[in-house]
Amino acid sequence: MNAKAVKEVLKAHVGRAYAPYSGFPVVALVEAEGEVFLGVNVENASFPLSQCAERNAVAAMVLAGKRRLERVHVYSPKGPIPPCGGCRQVLMEFGGPEVEVVLHGPEEEVRTTLGALLPLAFRL
Ligand code: THU
């Protein structure tokens, strides 16, 4: 999927995030084995049960039978935000340090890698 199309898909799904408590919607799109999978954050009245967008996208990928993460996109309408620590570990489970991570704002992008975000990762 080209960069412009990715941005359009991310923006088109921001309204699907369920973030009534934080007011901070996030959309994640993961590219894996030639397909793309989406996730949004889903919050809960019991705050710790809230799920991040990235982990929900990974769940969709695994359900579809894909496990080789190639690229990760994260979108926040407030500007580029990096994944939380827990999501970095979950992404590393299905990728490696070379996986590209693109942090999107409405117009701008910041490119990094999973290895830069999670050096010395614990892996089995
Ligand atoms: N959140 C994500 O979905 N992904 C991130 O990378 C960082 C934070 C969510 C969790 C919570 O629903 C809201 O953003 C505010 O922390």
Automatic annotation (TrEMBL):
Residue sites binding Zn(2+) per the record: 52, 84, 87
A Pfam family per the record: dCMP_cyt_deam_1
Domain CMP/dCMP-type deaminase: 1-124
Gene Ontology CC terms: cytosol
Catalytic activity, reaction form: cytidine + H2O + H(+) = uridine + NH4(+); 2'-deoxycytidine + H2O + H(+) = 2'-deoxyuridine + NH4(+)
GO molecular function: cytidine deaminase activity; identical protein binding; zinc ion binding
EC number: 3.5.4.5
Top-level taxon of the source organism: Bacteria
GO BP of this protein: nucleobase-containing small molecule metabolic process; pyrimidine-containing compound metabolic process
Signal peptide from the UniProt entry: none
Required co-factors: Zn(2+)
Record PANTHER family: CYTIDINE DEAMINASE
Family: Belongs to the cytidine and deoxycytidylate deaminase family.
Name by which UniProt lists this protein: Cytidine deaminase
Organism name: Thermus thermophilus (strain ATCC 27634 / DSM 579 / HB8)
